[in-house]
Amino acid sequence: MxxxxxxxxxxxxxxxxxxxxxxxxxxxxxxxQIGDLPPDALGKDGNGNPVRVSDYxxxxxxxxxxxxxxxxxxxxxxxxxxxxxxATRDKLLVVAVNWKESREKFRAIRNSLKDIDLTLVSDANxxxxxxxxxxxxxxxxIVGRDGRIARVHVGYSADGIPELVDEINELWTxxxxxxxxxKPGDSST
Length: 189
Prior knowledge:
The protein is an alpha/beta fold. The chain has two domains: 1-30; 41-173, Glutaredoxin, CATH 3.40.30.10. Helix content is 39%, strand content 20%. The protein is built from five helices and seven strands, in the order H-E-E-E-H-E-H-E-H-E-E-H. The protein has a five-stranded mixed sheet with strand order 5-4-3-6-7.
C-alpha cells in the first residue's frame, strides 16, 4: 500500500474543512446580499417588544445602522422619520439600529429623539450588525415588500439621500407582488 495515500486523505479532509470554514466565515462577514431573506431578529424596541423583519412582510422595511458620533447617520435620522411619516407605517417601517454604543448612551439618545417617529433598537455589542455584515456606518438595508433584501447601501452621505428616497418610492410602486418563493435552505423564522 502506498504510504502517501494514508496521509493524503486525512490532510485533504482537514484542508477541505478549513476551506469550508473560511468560506462560511467570509459569507457571514459579508452579510446577506440582494435577493436574500434578511436576518429576522433586530432586537427590542423602546418598550421591550421584539422587532422582527418577518412581522412586516408586505411593507418596505428600512434598516439603518447608525451611531451618535456618525455625522451622516445623524443627518439621515430626520429624513428617515419624514419618509416614514409621508409613507405611513402601513407601507413603510424604519428601524434605526444604534450600532456599538452602550445601552446607557442608547437610552439617552432615545430620550432625545422621542419626538422622531422611528423604531429605535440597540445593538450595543454589534451582534445584529454582524449578521448583516456591518463593518462601518452608515449602513442601510432596504427590504422589499416580498421580504427579501432589495438594496444595501454602505458609507453614503447626505447628498445621496434623494437617491435613497427614489429607490424606496420605486420599490413601492412596483406593485403588490406576491411574496417571492423561498430559496432552498432559506427560512423566514
